[in-house]
Amino acid sequence: MTIDQHNSIVIITQEKTSISEFSAKFSVLYERYKDDDIIIHLKDSSPEFMDSLIALSKKHRQLNHSFIVVSTQLNQDNFEDDFIVVPTLQEAYDYIEMETIERDLGI
Questions:
Q1: CA dist 27 to 57, 76, 88, Å?
Q2: CA distance linking residue 8 with residue 51, whole number of Å
Q3: What is the full DSSP assignment across 36-47?
Q4: What is the C-alpha R_g of the chain?
Q5: pTM, entire model
């Protein structure tokens, strides 16, 4: 797991850790980054972990912050509109930029 922070955006990347280990570590780390926009970059996924990510995403969005999952294995069509999945980091940055503009405009 690697963590990179750029201004108010935190990128948490699953690298060599298993999804269960990543899930356990992320649950602990979330409190540290709850005031930032979060990008989760997954190399693999599991249904149980996705359920916890969906719950965290809803909580995080209620705090007016972006929560984006980057994965080439997942498809946005399989999730509700309030859980965002994109295939690349650039798309995640673009999505956060768009959400930031919407928040600034009060949309």
A1: 12, 23, 23
A2: 25
A3: SEEEEE-SS--H
A4: 13
A5: 0.90
